[in-house]
Design brief:
By secondary structure, the chain is an alpha/beta fold. The protein has a domain at about 55-200. The chain contains 8 helices and 6 strands; from the N terminus they run H-E-E-E-H-H-H-H-H-E-H-E-E-H. The N and C termini lie far apart (about 80 Å).
Length: about 220
């Protein structure tokens, strides 16, 4: 009896639907992923073995290698209220339009006396050309900035503000500048803040390696 030959059918699979799903997922992750906040200038902070992540709502003070200080008010902070408060506190005489434009700036890094004129410039000054917030012993303007921040967050849980305050200093920056930042905090009765460092692994054989902290 002759064998029956079964005709071979094509094994081609239509991947159109699969490609559509893949691109939809890719688009979702791109849009939903939180981007790393911009840095005013590249700094190399000291290393530590701390692995605690910085909060999303952050007020970041950056100290560069050459001693310039910059302030970044995160998008999820009370940025508009802080800028409005400092405008009143220091008598900057900024209009509503100027305040709105200032709110779009990623960084704050110049003396109060230069802010109004800079907001009326056609192009924004690049970060590497900014002089930084004055931190002299006779003119520490960061004290006023911290005063406006504490004014805006007055009446709330101060532990929340302490969680938000981050200081990121270059490893080669001189201590007197960092001390001036601490002075600005102390003048406003802020005694706790976080220092941003480069994470590294716990040295093998160290006390922390042998006795790691227990999770809460």
């Amino acid at each position: 009896m002759p064998k029956l030959k079964i005709p071979r059918k094509s094994t081609t699979i239509d991947m159109t639907a699969m490609c559509d799903v893949a691109f939809l997922l890719l688009s979702f992750f791109i849009l939903a992923t939180k981007q790393k906040p911009p840095e005013v200038l590249s700094v190399s902070p000291p290393s530590s073995i701390s692995a605690k992540a910085a909060p999303d709502k952050s007020i970041l003070i950056t100290l560069t290698k050459d001693g310039r200080v910059f302030l970044m008010l995160g998008d999820e902070t009370e940025k508009a209220d802080i800028l409005s408060n400092i405008n009143t506190l220091k008598g900057l005489n900024l209009t509503a339009a100027e305040l709105k434009k200032w709110e779009k700036s990623a960084f704050i890094g110049m003396p109060f006396g230069q802010i109004k004129s800079s907001l009326n410039m056609a192009t924004e000054i690049p970060p590497n050309k900014l002089p930084g917030i004055p931190l002299d012993s006779t003119n520490n303007e960061l004290i006023d900035w911290m005063k406006s921040i504490t004014n805006v967050y007055a009446g709330t849980d101060q532990r929340r503000l302490q969680e938000m305050l981050l200081v990121k200093g270059d490893n080669d920056a001189f201590y007197p500048k960092f001390k001036s930042i601490k002075t600005a905090f102390k003048k406003n009765e802020i005694y706790k803040f976080r220092i941003v460092t480069n994470g590294e692994s716990v040295p093998v054989g160290s006390e922390l390696y042998l006795n790691p902290p227990k999770a809460n």
